[in-house]
């Protein structure tokens, strides 16, 4: 099975997980763990180890972390190394809801790793852009 593992500081990862449930329904292959304010790295890793229990040695993992080099992502990669899953892992930083949905759809469409990486990184680039507001002269007066 391919898992999507969301990790972050604060409550971002569980928040994105919650929105995925709301929009797409509950998925057994979506997991999340966060390092909330005041939680040590050791406590985060202990919680993460519980979260990744369902992942078997022959499964693969797509990790979306909030910050490249941040404690949640680096500790997650270390924990996956400890259980022998790093060779079956693709990791990204810059977690966003569009990236998570794109990764999940790529998993469900059974895309190969290179296509999955391309889809997720393209979604990350396309998802961050300015929204252009079109205002009529009349609308400007109402502001």
Would you kindly provide a brief summary of this structure?
The protein has a 4-stranded parallel β-sheet with strand order 2-1-3-4, sandwiched between helices. The protein is globular.
The CATH superfamily turns out to be Phosphotransferase system, mannose-type IIA component
CATH architecture: 3-Layer(aba) Sandwich
Number of strands: 4
Measured as a percent range, the helix fraction is 40-55%
Largest sheet: 4 strands, parallel
Structural class: alpha/beta
Q: Report the C-alpha radius of gyration, rounded.
A: 17 Å
Give the CATH class. Alpha Beta
Can you write the helix and strand succession as a string?
Answer: EHEHEHEHHH
The fraction of residues assigned to DSSP E strands is 15-25%
Mean pLDDT: 94
Number of domains: 1
Give the N-terminus to C-terminus distance in angstroms: 52 Å
Under CATH, the topology can be stated as Rossmann fold
Q: How are strands sequenced across the largest beta sheet? A: 2-1-3-4
* Shape category: globular
Give the count of helical stretches: 6
- Poorly predicted residue ranges: none
Keywords for this entry:
alpha/beta; Rossmann fold; 143 residues
Written overview of the protein:
By secondary structure, the chain is of the alpha/beta class. It has helices at residues 12-24, 41-51, 71-82, 97-108, 113-127, 137-142; strands at residues 2-9, 30-35, 60-65, 89-92. It has a four-stranded parallel β-sheet, with helices on both faces. Strand 3 (60-65), helix 3 (71-82) and strand 4 form a beta-alpha-beta unit.
